[in-house]
TrEMBL record:
Keyword Aminoacyl-tRNA synthetase in record: no
Protein's name in the database: PUA domain-containing protein
Annotated GO CC locations: cytoplasm
Sequence ranges assigned to domain PUA in this UniProt record: 4-98
Species assigned in the record: Salvia splendens
Keywords: Cytoplasm, Methyltransferase, RNA-binding, rRNA processing, S-adenosyl-L-methionine, Transferase
Amino acid sequence: MSVAKVVLKKGKTQLFKDGSPMVYSGAVDRIVGRPPPTTGDIVLVTDETEKPIGWGLYNSVSMFCVRLMQLEDEAAKDPSCVLNVDRLLESRISSAVELRRQLRLPSAQTNAYCLVNSEGDRLSGLIVDIFGDEAVVVSSAAWVEKYNQQIRDCISKTNHVNHITWRPSIDILKEEGLDVCCYTAGFALNAARGGALSVTGVDSSSPALEIARENVVLNNLDPRVISFQKEDATHFMKTAIANGDSWDIVILDPPKLAPSRKALQNALGAASMAGRKIKVVCQAGAGCAHPIDPSYPEGEYLLNVLLNDNSEPYFFSSRN
């Protein structure tokens, strides 16, 4: 089998030698091989001297042009998976199932848990959640779509799984979105580009919204899909709650309330608007069914904060 080489730039290799799985296009110096690889093809990833770092799956249209699947030292220990996606899937999904078994999942307390956690289970772009006897597959990488059937076959061997629902990221985006504090609409534009049915961007800055509207034109997006409102975010959200408005996806990425010590009083004033005094009881990350690969710390994205306002405890969850 002829395999193309993705040769990295000098000085850009250590991150991937350490195990980070997502090779971004800016780290690539050249691609060696004819014909050039197409999306979903197996490729070798090498340093600037063409010494192999590992192998992965190529994507010709993503900013992450390769998802590394196996490093050289791993290949030496398990040669059966070298350049073999079917065997690798069997091995990685089997390991994920065994880890959850050791964690006693499912259990008498819950039958809802994460079976495959993307980079945490060394399958970047693939998430599998279990709800009773149903497995929900969330695909965020082209290779996952290409190997759809092989993934289904592996999951179907899992005890208790009788149904599989496949949810590619493009389907997830086919919903209504709200981008609060949208600024020049980076998130809103990507949602519209990804196939959202409608997107509303909200910001208090007229100049920012003017640029946002220009960006809609520059990106050849349908202005009927994406619209903008000039309004204070807090006032907008209070009105939306009062009107019973809702969206499938809400993006809230506000500017810092206190970017400096001088602005601290403004932040305290905003906090006092809630009219509630709270205590932070504890902070925690994702559950044990969401393993994290230390070489990819970006995977540690979930934060749970338990707050108490002296009446009753409640949870507030956010993504870092």
